[in-house]
Amino acid sequence: IISTDITSITTATKPTGIFAHAMSTASTKRGALIFLHGLGDSPAGWSSLQTSLPSLQSRLADIEYVFPAAPTIPITINGGMTMTGWFDVFDWPIAVGSKDDPVGLDRSVAQIEAEVAKLEGKGIPASRIVVGGFSQGAAASLLAVYGRNTRAYAGCVCLSGWLTLPSELKDLSATAKATPLFWGHGQHDDKVLFPQQKFGVEKLREAGVEDVEDQSYPVGHSSHPAEVQRLAEFVDAKLFAEQPAGVKEDL
Q1: N or C: lower Cβ tally within 10 Å for the chain?
Q2: Low-confidence ranges of the chain (pLDDT < 70)
Q3: Residue 106 designated active-site
């Protein structure tokens, strides 16, 4: 008979050492979404996705949500004053051909990869992780998934973002080319200009990315309800591909 009172479990029957640590940190979730906020924002700005996405696609209640925080750094377009940012921004608005910050971008990619490593340590492989973000967070995500990628991610999401360091797309890995992308953008975006979507999508397709979906919406630099709906559908499809609703798949 197994007691339901956890205090009655003796020291002899409790898992110890590495085994106990593995049991305590292992995730029971079926996948994960890592989502990066935009310039000057915080994780709280997008944390509502962990309730809104499951309300649109019920299986998304069974994934882990990670909302990393950008460091506080000097931002050139802010007169050098500090604010939360994944990398420095030199031009405003951000048009095609705007100057990039390779050092800051590399730092952001390293932070994304650290979050992926944490999830892998919990038993969620990269193939069950979607990486994405909004605006500057989306730009960092694109570089992590395509420009620097050696992992087979489930997918990438770019909302109102832009493609940085486009010259580095010359030799994409096979895993990067096979990683599907959803790119949503506001048609009236006056911060990350709308032509950035067409430029980025074309460059990625030219580089061999096989599955790119681009959608536009009648908004400025913000999200749209139809965009959030499509985001939910995309993440659900990539994490639960060919799996009937209501059926759980063992990892």
Answers
A1: N
A2: 1-26, 242-251
A3: no
